[in-house]
Amino acid sequence: MRAPSIVLAGGGTAGHVSPLLAIADALRAARPDADLLAVGTATGMETRLVPAAGYRLATIDRVPLPRSLSADLLRLPTRLARAVRQAGDLLDAAHADAVVGVGGYVCTPLYLAARRRRVPIVIHEANVTAGLANRVGARFAASVGTAFAQTALPHARLVGMPMSRTIADLDRSGARAAARARFGIDPDARLLAVTGGSSGAASLNRALVSALPALAAAGITVLHVTGRGKRAESAPGIPVAGSHYTQIEYVDGMADLYAAADLLVARAGAGTVNEVAAVGLPAVFVPLPHGNGEQALNARFLVDAGAALIVRDHEFTADWIGTHVPELLHDDARLAGMAAAAADLGIRDADRAMARLVLDAAGRHASASPSPSPSARSSIDAHRTPESGPDAASIDDLASGGASGGDGDGGGVTR
């Protein structure tokens, strides 16, 4: 059996890149000989995260969909056709046996190019209300895996959310001491971890900083992930500091944050809620205030099970934090019950389930295709430059209710 060639498409945000990398890792574990190529755009987080994970990255043009009638809208067919040609060139050079799509700007051109070549498509959809790219691709996909049971797509089956094995296999109690040492946190502290995602959440940051005196008085230690470029300052150029407070802008290893925390405050993106369930971490979710309420619904399965609390953004104030968080963090029995309820709902093998679907599709395709020469697969240009307007929104953005901002990650809706 020849080594399968698999192209993985997705990117833009960590919410797309993280499951893509988890699937890639599972494919490599199952078939170390597999030829794997990730495809994204040159403006997304994949440009940093994919090479850092040890995978090749090729880029194609973004396909923007202008929000209003304009010359850019008239140019859309030409731009899409060019991106499809670029995607086709990559598939041909890779002699792809399967295309895996997780959503983002890049997927529609890859799906269309794969369909023309009869290359099987395997999709993972993180949201209940799927984005346009995955709605299009699912119509002719070989398999579709979903993070939530209610996702209405052809061929859909529940697999869960692919995540890093460092998170899926995390033993929070066993990893706690080392994780706290990494962040410089007292091993016996009552620790509240707060994060608004890789881009941060300004409203969460403001409320938390205002609540720091009350939290310190209650003996609560805070680990605050502010988001890149969103350092909390007490005055211009002066970072907020305190004996019970540690702030960092970004965490590369979320497993350490989950292991260190006794309670997490976060937005309710699909990745976050599924990771919280997998590791059994009590949480307070503060959904994004804009959109169609997707994040609030996204966290509902954990809230209904007693594993998490949910607070509307405008209600997440310093007063709310000072009133409710110390009470919760000093209630060991309640925290233990929340942790157990979360763990009971966690799905920890979605990466492997997706890898099985991909390898099955690739195997069927490879058995009907001639073996390419090794030199043919080495000809991929991995440094294409995208062309897109800075004020445009992607097709996926409009399908999911608008371009995402810098106030926490997006996500699915219900489980």
Describe the structure.
The protein is α/β, with parallel strands linked by helices and 415 residues long. The chain folds into 2 domains: 5-165 and 349-399, Glycogen Phosphorylase B (Rossmann fold), CATH 3.40.50; 170-345, Glycogen Phosphorylase B (Rossmann fold, 3-Layer(aba) Sandwich). The chain is 42% helix and 16% strand. The chain contains 18 helices and 17 strands. The chain has helices spanning 14-30, 46-52, 71-74, 76-94, 107-116, 132-138, 165-168, 172-183, 202-217, 254-260, 270-279, 294-298, 300-304, 318-329, 332-345, 350-367, 374-377, 395-399, and strands at residues 5-9, 35-40, 56-59, 64-65, 98-101, 121-125, 143-146, 156-158, 190-195, 220-225, 233-235, 238-239, 245-248, 263-266, 283-285, 308-310, 393-394. The chain has a 7-stranded parallel β-sheet with strand order 3-2-1-5-6-7-8, with helices on both faces. The protein has a 6-stranded parallel β-sheet with strand order 13-10-9-14-15-16, sandwiched between helices. Strand 11 (233-235) and strand 12 form a beta hairpin. It is globular. It starts with a strand and ends in a 16-residue tail after the last helix.
List keywords for this structure.
415 residues, Rossmann fold, 2 domains, 18 helices, 17 strands, disordered C terminus, transferase activity
Write the layout of secondary structure elements.
Blueprint (H helix, E strand, L loop, with lengths): L4 E5 L4 H17 L4 E6 L5 H7 L3 E4 L4 E2 L5 H4 L1 H19 L3 E4 L5 H10 L4 E5 L6 H7 L4 E4 L9 E3 L6 H4 L3 H12 L6 E6 L6 H16 L2 E6 L7 E3 L2 E2 L5 E4 L5 H7 L2 E4 L3 H10 L3 E3 L8 H5 L1 H5 L3 E3 L7 H12 L2 H14 L4 H18 L6 H4 L15 E2 H5 L16
Parallel strand pairs: 1-2, 1-5, 2-3, 5-6, 6-7, 7-8, 9-10, 9-14, 10-13, 14-15, 15-16
Antiparallel strand pairs: 4-17, 11-12
Helix pairs in contact: 1-16, 4-5, 5-6, 8-10, 9-14, 11-15
